[in-house]
Fold each of these.
Amino acid sequence: MRTYARRILLTTSLLTSLYHTPTFADNSRAIDHGPIGVMGDHYHKAGEWMVSARYMRMHMSGNQTGSDTLSDAEVIAQNNAPGRMPGKLSVVPDDMDMDMLMLGAMYAPSDRVTLMAMIMASSKDMGLKSYQPPAMMGMGSGMSASSRDLVGSFSTSTDGIEAISFSGLFRLRESVQSRTHMTVGLQQSLADANATDTVLTPMGTRMRMRLPYSMQIGDEALRLKLAITHVHQSENWVFGGQAGGKFKLDSKPWNFGDSQHYTGWVQRSLNHRLSYSGRLTYERASTLEGMDPMIMAPVQTAIPANYGYRQWRIGVGLNAVIPLLPGAPERLGIEIERPFDVQVNGIQMTPKWRITLGLQKSL
């Protein structure tokens, strides 16, 4: 287990000794749940059920290396992976949208333990441009990459069931004004990592190819999920924080890297049914591990070294309690986040924004 995971487990063992009888809020107000973009921010009392649906869209456009923006001409001036043809990158990603639907259920068999299950489905759409390869232009070492002609634009897409996860939320400490809990779970990637689509090659032909790693819905890996969440509440304010991560447990021909996040939020209650929030998040992911010999297109997303990042995001959100169906009122949430100070490994697309919408129903 990675050092980060060991630290989380050590912290939780120390926090367990601080256990108190639960006296926290009854979760009936809009402010009693965190921003909709925070997963596993709360637990339930014995016998309670909750079902939820979340929709998230993320948009990316343009390209960068490190933190520096790259033009198309600068991208196609970069070397392809060693041993691949052509020797220079010749396909440039232009923009990408990723949509994710998350359906979840929570049940508390006791006051100290809440069980959570979730299934995720995703779709990805990317627009790209193909440029003539250097050899077709008689391009020597002194020839500018900007002189390579545009062959045309095309798009690729893929969709499917991404993953399923099962987790336990374990209450460590609860008092009138604060609560702390640990989340431990497993997430299994379900999608086959062999999605294909028709692409426009630098030679001007169209052919069906296996899509690059970033367009695959899953990597077939099993991951350990760990998180620690702490929430402090005053009369009309809530301050929360969460540190968590996902860590690969099994080996595959290739898989996305481990990831960690640290997020903090503040919420203000307008009234019983409405609250607003601000959130700051730091997230990092390690580079892609392994490779697929069938992913060989002359595009940056086909090179494993061009994965892994560090980024900050700032978000604003709104929670509302609205009676829509019989029984307890539903909770509606929306959160909009914008990345900043993004650092990437190699060459990658630039994230621009993400929006999360959610509906939660207690049973």
Amino acid sequence: MKILIIEDDLKIASFIKKGLNEEGFIVDTAQDGEEGLYLCEQYKYDLILLDWMLPKLNGRQVCNSLREKKIVTPILMLTAKNSVEDRIAGLECGADDYLGKPFVFLELVARVKSLLRRSSYQFIETLKLDSLEVNITKRLVTRSSKPIVLTAKEFDILVYMLLNQDCIITHTQLQEKLWGINECTSSNVINVFIHHLRHKIDTQDEKPLIHTVRGSGYKMNV
């Protein structure tokens, strides 16, 4: 899943991004309210971490604008403002939760996962297709009960494809969903990942599940 951090303190943003990456999330960052608002309008995120005190547009203005534009992505407001009045103001502008600074990273992760479960995104623990089974929470993959070892990016690609079974998945979709906007990758790189994934998933003893749709992308089905 993809998260946007809108935070002008580079040390805090870097710390949060590194930790969320280790938790398996794809993370983009913005350093001011205008940039954050622009990214939210251009890309689809599963959750937004929004600092209250930002240059150009503050967190409350960003939050209000997003809700006015009918962007319902869950928002976790991060701020050093900890009074009851400030918490109420943050929630009234459209934020879904509020976490005061300084915070323990484990609590941040817990809040993030809680919001994702509560949001319109339907949290699914296990995905299955034919004899392939993927446990998203434990990041375990098996086929015919045999464990399959995947890299982090291979796992993310597989989960995305399983969530979009029978749909054509383009290179652009994979780029936008599984690589951050600050990461540039080519179609050739994506093709290599798919090749490695197919080699591990579609063995000679199993029915092919990953299919190439010539000129369009890929499709995952039986």
Amino acid sequence: MAKLPDYCIWDFNGTILDDVGVGIASVNYLLRERGLPIIENEEAYRRVFRFPIRDYYAGLGFDFSKEPYEVIAPLWVDQYMQRIGSATLYDGVREALEGFRSLGIRQTVLSATEKEMLRGQLVSLGIEDFFEEILGLDNIHAASKTALARDWRIRHPDASAIFVGDTDHDYETASMMRAECYLITGGHQSTDYLEKMNVPLFQNVSEFYKYVCQIQ
């Protein structure tokens, strides 16, 4: 990239918000209730987490013939919302948001989180005002962000953009919106898996921010 992008598009969960532990605790509650093996630690979680979330749940042993995904999903959301108050921003996120704003880079958050839930979390974290657009899904099933990405590109046909996330689905989303993709390790998927995307990887947001500012 020869110059700074017009836009930085941010994923939320696992990129801005450190909610890995909350996600594990929430799904483990449901697993224990059903007598299924729990996820032992973050390393094990990152090996099994994937999109669509329905497939992730199936891999954990949930039997949709007995209990449909549409029933399980809101149960998980309820557990998540009970715990989310303990989740914090990753180190360096606020500084990067402030830095990009000072450089004139417009910022959008694009997430598989339901849009009103997403907005509420951004308000609670005190970072809502950094974002020109807050793009979330119209349901709680976290199926895919690619439609949001396609619509964003239609609205901004000529804008240069970078996308920062922490999963393979973020790579797919960036591709859909024709944005340069950067991935942060330590979110919801393992480094070994993210390496398969063949895009720049960073240990944290601070490294990502410094890289973007140095490639102008």
